[in-house]
Amino acid sequence: MTMHNGIEIFSTVQELVHPQRTALLVYDMQVGIVPQIPDGPAILSKVQKLLKATRRAGIRTIFTRHMSLPLELMGAFQYRMAMAWQRKQSPAEVSSPFLRDSPGFQLVPELQPLPSEAIFDKLAMSAFEGTPLQFTLRDCGIRSLILAGIALEIGIEPTCRQAADLGIIPILVRDACGAGNAEAADQCVATLEHMGDTIVTDLMTITELLTNYHRQ
User: Fold this and answer.
1) Among 51, 11, 24, CA closest to 136
2) Distance, CA of 117 to CA of 107 (rounded, Å)
3) Most exposed among 56, 61, 153, 192, judged by the fewest C-beta atoms under 10 Å?
4) How many CB atoms lie within 10 A of CB 51?
């Protein structure tokens, strides 16, 4: 940590990870999403290990869920995206796979939040857009955000970018982030590393750091 003009500047993951200034974001680990990627079970196992470590350390935790609108509420952009994702040629052919009460919308049973944890539902890819995430982190004095879940190249990367734009340092746990397209995910990580505002680390590093804060 460096002091300059009376400001504490945290640079390394070792300095940044602390229960008082770090939160965990578990991104879209939903029943209808985890099975879509080839390594879904492996990513789930790693997110479980990360979640166990952050809970023991007293890290504030937020889950996100991607939500579909009913067809009656979908507009031009929503139809366009649904056609692209579902590979349909006509808006009349699309469905809403993640309606609020549908089975696929729910978080996987292995990752049920505690009463002390929150779930934020979203329509956009960034976890900040249209959710109380920014307010929550700012109000708690959070300086860094650990990110894990699915999918890196779809929603986790834009969440990292928006966190950085808001002055919250993203800590990407690379091997606890699943992807539908491995090449696209690697390109996203390379870009984040090039920009320099996201810290890219791994599960072992984070869990070892968190052992310093395990509550009795």
Assistant:
1) 24
2) 13
3) 56
4) 23
For the chain, what's the residue count?
216
In this structure, the dihedral spanned by the alpha carbons of residues 92, 95, 99 and 104, taken in order and rounded to 10 degrees, is 180
Q: Give the chain's end-to-end CA distance (angstroms, integer).
A: 27
Q: What is the average pLDDT across 184-191? A: 97
For 72, the token pair is 């009656």
Cα separation values, 2 from 15, 120, 145, Å: 10, 34, 20
- Written as one string, the DSSP assignment of 107-174 is BPGGGPPPTTSEEEEESSSSTTTTSSHHHHHHHTT--EEEEEEE-IIIIIHHHHHHHHHTT-EEEEEE
Q: Is this model's pTM higher than 0.70 or not? A: yes
pLDDT tier at 10, thresholds 50, 70, 90? confident
Q: Residue 89 carries which DSSP code?
A: S
Q: Which tokens is 200 given?
A: 């890219």
Surface-to-core class of residue 3, CB atoms within 10 Å of its CB (0-12 exposed, 13-18 middle, 19+ buried): exposed
Integer Cα distance of 139 and 161 in angstroms: 20
More confident site: 214 or 171: 171
